[in-house]
Write a structure and sequence with these properties.
This protein is an all-alpha fold. The protein is built from 15 helices and 2 strands. The protein has a single domain, classed as Farnesyl Diphosphate Synthase (Orthogonal Bundle), CATH 1.10.600.10. It has a two-stranded antiparallel ribbon.
Amino acid sequence: MTLQQYLEAQRLRVDEELERILPGSDEYPPSIHQAMRHSVFAGGKRLRPILCLEGGRLFDGDEKRLLRLGCALELIHTYSLIHDDLPALDNDDLRRGKPTCHKAFGEATAILAGDALLTLAFEIMAESSAGSEERRLLVIRELARAIGTRKGMLGGQVVDLETAGQMTGSATVDYIHSAKTGALIRAAVRCGALDAGAGPQDLARLSTYGEKIGLAFQIADDLLDVTSTREALGKSVGKDDQQHKATYPAIHGIDESRQIAGQLVRDACAVLEPYGPRAQRLQQMAQYLVERTH
């Protein structure tokens, strides 16, 4: 099975589970549930759930638990996209080729839909069927930190907003990328491993892997914003430059940014070598993250 076939098969599994988890579009009150479903099922590669699955499979984790945990990650990711698109933040009209949540349902409902997805994610993670209590608490803490303000997604978002239009250095750009995007990617692979009972040395390796591919992923996003088209990406392009955002191409240029991303991927793959063929999919996914065209 090629990587593309594998990713598509895993995406379908995640979508089927998300369908079971999310309230139906007619369930009362329908407006909020329709908004939630609009954003979750607007598309997406489901990379974070797949990273979670592969992180757990390295240590023979339970597939059913890993799948539900991966879906919780996707709900958190979607919540972040809904809020990121809002007029007060990036003010985007298009996401994955469809109208953003606030364009389709109004700003107030979009805010509440994001809140609802985040809440539902933690409900899923806290379920009594989701493994031992100790492991559940470790996973919940891991994700809460990845979302939060201390080198987490929200902290990265704040610095991204505050530095727009300012001259910033590479250290600030690294912080924004590693926190706003990389923290949740790192958490995805670590949460799968935590749920499967991985030990400290294994978690340290996966932390390094997750940090490096998380930064490489955002560098690739920066490059696509410069080099791709609205039709290919399904969202606005060139906005980083218009808003004078701190990005890798702005600091390092296109060619050097590509070189940095490539080296990050090589380093990420190298740290997984002790696992041999079991880590093949994680290594392939690392390469895919920087070679993707959308």
